[in-house]
Amino acid sequence: NEPTGIMDEPDLRAFMPYATAAETGANPIPGRWIAERRWPAKPETQRLHLNLGTLDSKPAPTTQLTHHDTAIVGATKPEWLDLPPIDQSADDRQCLTFDTPLLAAPLEVLGAPAVHLRLASDTPITQIVLRLCEVKPDGTSWLVTWAALNLTRRKSMSAPTPLTPGQTYDIPITLRTIAHRFNPGSRIRLAISTSLWPVLWP
Length: 202
What we know:
Layout: E1 12-17, H1 21-24, E2 31-36, E3 49-50, E4 55-56, H2 89-92, E5 96-99, E6 107-111, E7 114-120, E8 127-135, E9 141-150, E10 168-174, E11 178-182, E12 187-193
Antiparallel strand pairs: 1-2, 3-4, 5-12, 6-11, 7-10, 8-9, 8-12
């Protein structure tokens, strides 16, 4: 075997964008290339708690929130190719939203954000959609990553089990893997809905 040095290269190289593709449109995406010597890397995690409309480093006293979609969520998805880049604010207004305080410093994410929900449903068959967005100082909201789960598949994708209405369930959900820098002056937003049209109909 001829040594080429390839085995000395980092396990992972990735582009760390400073803005979302939807936000920049046809313009170049600002950012930089990064490398991880070993992948999966040793995780450096930051845990945020869903409080009353906020994402905080500490949990607040337990609060029960009730939500059902009253309008179609999904009209601002970036996949609508006949539209210019549009922000997520219109969809956010139809969701339960949780925002961090203004970020004082950049926060970079490389990997798959995970959310743990404790919830109950009033129907045996339903679904949950999570969207992680960056809310800029001007109030625009830009989609960073998302996840959806038919809650009858909470234990198995091949053997669905209906929910018992009124019963509380602990639901872990992993969002799509991303590399993204949340910028100073922005907020991180988690938006929760029960649909994402046309991927998941109400």
